[in-house]
Amino acid sequence: MLSFQCPSPFFFSGQNRTTTTSCSTAPPRASTELTASPSSLISRRLILLRHAHSSWDHLSLKDHDRPLTKTGQADAAKVAQILSSLGWLPQLILSSDATRTKETLKSMQAQVDGFMEANVHFIPSFYSIAAMDGQTADHLQHIISKYSSPDITTVMCMGHNKGWEEAASMLSGASVKLKTCNAALLLAFGNSWDDAFAMAGPGGWKLEGIVAPDSTICV
């Protein structure tokens, strides 16, 4: 995976991610209509977001209860703005119930009103599943199918490594690295989320890019 530092938001296509990178000064925005593939299947967009930078200052706190740092709060606001500028606003947000993921979402909602409009569910199992080898992708599929409906085309799942990196890599077939407050943007097609997961299969989701707080989207 290639990493780029740019002074302003650029979109780096994941189409030829192993060898080449293309960028545009005008990042492509998502259509407000339901985008369909040539076979008339509806696009399903999945955002896998790792929580923002959290504090280790309070040693008495359980890991589950660690808050964000000020840097983490600022990073979450930046990522929210980038996702909004690209038109990747989720209609459904599924998040770990850890303090640092909740505070990441709170900072994003404070920055971009669109994140307030999404349906939000806090999923306790997102905290624990991320530590288990190779189980996160299947678990995400199960939870997304449980809480989504056919009219929902963009879902954001917020959680932790190592599971979020593993899931992004398994779904896309790429070697995905997610630093704190990095988001993998994944695309597949299907008339429902179950259809999209079944049709894409492991490695079949297109990695559209990785959003980082420093205003880069890179693969």
Automatic annotation (TrEMBL):
Pfam families: His_Phos_1. Coiled coil: none annotated. InterPro entries: His_Pase_superF_clade-1 (IPR013078), His_PPase_superfam (IPR029033). This is Phosphoglycerate mutase family protein. The lineage of its organism: Eukaryota, Viridiplantae, Streptophyta, Embryophyta, Tracheophyta. The gene is A03p052120.1_BraROA.
